[in-house]
Amino acid sequence: MENIDELKAGVAVIILNEENQVLLQKRADVGLWGIPSGHVEIGETVTEAAVREVKEETNLDIRIKKLIGVYSDPESQVFYYPSGKVVHFITTCFLAEITGGKLRCNSDESLEIRFFGQGALPQDLLKMHPRWLKDVLAEREMAFIR
Which of 3.40.640.10, 3.90.79.10, 3.40.50.1820, 3.40.50.300 is the CATH number of 6-145? Predict the structure, then answer.
């Protein structure tokens, strides 16, 4: 196994609009598109982290609808930052609905935020995110553990 600097708890939130388009953000740190996501902070639950991260990155208020899965496989969950830091994330992924707020880039972490049709996703998508999108579209009752 390669050198991994840290292990972190992460959250990701899939938000679909009325047209079943998925909300993606173009991340400032790597310049790639991805599902709104981030880290769990000390003293925070995963659902609190998910709600906070979405608010910080998109200005939207959300309600968690469902757990999609927990992802820990190093094949997809090791993230390489431009600084050279390598982090293995254990990510809890949720499906959420919008309850308020107005969509806008709300932090220096995002270059752009918009909805994409599921058949027209950007090519420059973070490597682990297509798996999460496929899992949410499976509409399975039980959560995935990958």
Answer: 3.90.79.10
